[in-house]
Design a protein that fits this description.
The chain is of the alpha/beta class. The chain is built from 10 helices and 15 strands. Strands 1, 2, 3, 4, 5 and 11 form a 6-stranded mixed β-sheet that branches. A 5-stranded mixed β-sheet has the order 8-7-9-6-10. A 4-stranded antiparallel β-sheet has the order 13-14-12-15, with helices on both faces. The radius of gyration is 22 Å and the shape is elongated.
């Protein structure tokens, strides 16, 4: 039985994403779920050989990329993304039985969750003090342990701890979605589907005019659609950054493969994070290689009229 870590404790949206991947047959059968206290800890369990994979959040439609996950993928031995799942995210306000919403003075929340319900809290609990929790499920545990009166959490976490529900479906924005990824040790990418996502990190880039533009041009020149471009500080000195890129396509698409090879030649250290089927495909697919390849073969054979 595969051992799969997830950003826990039990009751987080990440555990729900793991369950969704299980139901989508991302694994050969049932898995043993291993809760980890952070995204980085979940990924380190893979590197240590203690689990076969890990599910972690990577992007929120409201708050953008999850920086803790991006940093953990860039630092340490290379890991690889092989699948993803998306969840519609709305929160549940849970509290110890007997507490009314008007009595909440301290509310526990994971910072990403707090940002997604900021307006709701300002309107419904304007005087409540925010208590920072390690995850959505940990916020519910903080209530059970007496650190807060209520929590921005999940229904599953509240039920697990016997907490009461004060409000459900809480979200500042309709159709809020979070994307989660399944990460493993490096392996062959899942087969190309025609609706894929490829991700990489430029770990080092020459500090000279035009270096970033030249990196982007390797994709543009080949008709490869970049769907996410993000920088994160390396934490080694002021003004030094890593660049995270997502593009439409698969490493087995010729245009994507050629862009990766060109980037490797010109942009310094590159970390390939994987190619996998996208849950919600967007952007333009890479141009097919077959017509150009056939034309080139005809040239080599000396065909007259081209």
């Amino acid at each position: 039985m595969p051992r799969i870590a997830y950003f826990g404790p039990s009751g987080t949206f990440t555990e729900m994403a793991l369950a969704k991947l299980e139901s989508a047959a991302a694994f050969d059968g049932p898995v043993e779920r291993i809760a980890a206290p952070s995204q980085g800890d979940a990924l380190e369990l893979i590197r240590a050989g203690e689990v076969d994979g890990a599910v972690v959040p990577i992007e929120s439609s409201i708050e953008g990329s999850i920086s803790a996950t991006l940093d953990a993928l860039a630092i340490g031995p290379r890991l690889q993304i092989v699948a993803e799942a998306e969840l519609d995210v709305a929160f549940t306000i849970v509290a110890r039985p007997g507490i009314e919403l008007s009595e909440v003075n301290v509310i526990a929340a994971y910072p990403v969750a707090a940002a997604q319900v900021r307006m709701w809290l300002a309107h419904r609990l304007p005087r409540a003090r925010l208590y920072t929790s390690a995850s959505n499920a940990a916020a519910a545990e903080d209530v059970a342990n007496g650190h807060a009166d209520a929590a921005v959490s999940t229904t599953l976490a509240g039920q697990r701890l016997g907490l009461a529900t004060l409000a459900s479906g809480v979200a500042d924005h309709d159709q809020a979605t979070t994307r989660f990824v399944l990460v493993t040790r490096p392996c062959a990418a899942p087969p190309r589907t025609g609706a894929d996502r490829t991700s990489l990190v430029i770990l080092e880039l020459a500090n000279e005019p035009g270096s970033l533009m030249r990196a982007f041009a390797e994709f543009a020149a080949r008709g490869v659609d970049l769907t996410r471009i993000e920088s994160r500080p390396t934490r080694t000195g002021m003004g030094t950054y890593r660049f995270y890129l997502d593009c439409v396509g698969h490493i087995d698409d010729t245009a994507v493969a050629e862009a990766l090879k060109a980037l490797h030649r010109t942009a310094g250290r590159i970390r390939y994070l994987g190619s996998w089927p996208a849950s919600s495909p967007s952007g333009s697919t890479p141009p097919p290689d077959e017509p150009a390849a056939a034309w080139l073969e005809d040239l080599k054979k000396g065909v007259a009229d081209l």
